[in-house]
Amino acid sequence: MLTLDKYLSGEVAVIKKRSSSEAHPVTLVLGNESGDLDSVVCSVILAWHLHSAEKPFLPLLNFYRNDLALRSEVVTLLGELQLSLEHVLYLDDVDAEVWGDWSVILVDHNLINVDTIKFLDKNVIEIYDHHVLERQRSSNVKIILERVGSCSTLVAEKIFSENSNVDVSTQFFLILSQHCYYVPKP
After folding, report:
1. Span 4-16+24-177 CATH architecture
2. pLDDT of the residue at 110
3. Structure confidence at residue 10 (pLDDT)
4. Which listed site, 21, 28, 79, 180, has its alpha carbon 20 to 30 Å from 53?
5. Could you give the angle at which helices 72-81 and 37-50 cross, rounded to 10 degrees?
6. Which residues contact 13 (CB under 8 A, 6 or more apart)?
7. What's this model's pTM, rounded to 2 decimal places?
8. Cα 67 vs. chain centroid, distance in angstroms?
């Protein structure tokens, strides 16, 4: 399995380039529109965990690329872990023509509320969330919904149950994201 930093620095860019030129089927892992630490971590980590050469997964951050700088807890944690979100997808990258048939997994929300990507709601196949359910249940959508403190808890449970050899930086990334506030070292 690729390490998280190799996935983010290389693999995501390759998939993104190939996918936009070939309309290659990809599954997007989409966090909520707040783009808080919990949502970003869940999008990135779950996409990385599920990704394989045969079945590519890409994180889609539910805000514009320039707005990453406004999410100080995300930027701080990424800096501490020496990770970059340069190559992940943002709302700036939306291409309805290419993405029209791509599957979607929602994390940290259960209904797409952003007009730019509302067309993807029909493609939702799975949901990991800790909020009140806003959508109708469907046999086509697997829903993992538990009232826990953060969605990262649900994603961590899935990852740790399927892969006991998760690297330390990924464990750290998941554990920190389960806390409301991240305070960097002085």
Report:
1. Alpha-Beta Complex (3.90)
2. 94
3. 75
4. 79
5. 50
6. 87
7. 0.86
8. 16
Q: Per 3-state DSSP, what percentage of the chain is helix, strand, and coil (rounded to 5)? A: 45, 15, 40
| C-beta separation of 105 from 25 below 8 A | no
Q: For the chain, what's the residue count?
A: 186
| Spatial CA neighbour of 107 closest among 26, 177, 6 | 177
Domains of the chain by residue range = 4-16+24-177
Which residues partner with 127 through β-bridges?
A: 106, 143
Both structure tokens of 38: 């919990």
Under-50 pLDDT residues of the chain: 179-186
User: Residue 138's beta-bridge partner residues?
Assistant: none
Q: For tokens 């979607």, name the residue.
A: 104
How many whole angstroms separate alpha carbon 140 and alpha carbon 137? 9
Asked if residues 19 and 56 have their Cβ atoms less than 8 Å apart, the reply is yes
Taking residue 115's Cβ as centre, other Cβ atoms within 10 Å add up to 7
* Residue whose pair of structure tokens reads 């730019």 in the numeric block: 116
Q: DSSP assignment, residue 55?
A: S
CB 64 within 8 A of CB 91: yes
